[in-house]
Design a protein that fits this description.
Helices cover 69% and strands 5% of the residues. By secondary structure, the protein is mainly alpha-helical. A two-stranded antiparallel ribbon has the order 1-2. Helix 3 runs antiparallel to helix 4.
């Protein structure tokens, strides 16, 4: 997309590193649950809206490279949640079933091992 923009004499907006770091921090802290800062709007915007915006921006390129299905998989991840969401669910479920914090963490580690080995 960046090459296409350059070819069409357009540019990608450049933002101060501090602003980019703010969104990086938000993503690390909240995942996609609390949105990211849209610097053009000056507001926190739901991740789903930003995802649709980026998908629209790269649609032409995804079609060119034949990877539309792979790119659109981002919607599936948004719908079902990330691995972090599932890890938290395993942890919370273990706690609700009476596990100690340590045992709940072990349950998460066991779940990760099972997920990693699935299909091997």
């Amino acid at each position: 997309m960046l090459w296409r923009l350059k070819r069409e004499n357009q540019r990608w907006r450049l933002y101060a590193r501090m602003l980019i770091d703010e969104n990086r921090w938000r993503a690390q802290r909240y995942g996609f649950d609390q949105g990211l800062v849209d610097f053009g709007k000056g507001a926190i915007v739901p991740y789903a809206a930003l995802l649709e915006e980026i998908l629209a921006l790269i649609d032409q390129d995804a079609r060119y490279f034949g990877c539309v299905d792979e790119v659109l998989h981002a919607r599936d991840i948004l719908a079902r949640g990330t691995s972090a969401h599932r890890q938290l669910a395993v942890f919370d479920r273990a706690l609700s079933e009476g596990a100690s914090r340590h045992d709940a963490l072990v349950a998460v580690a066991d779940w990760l091992i099972e997920e990693t080995a699935r299909g091997i």
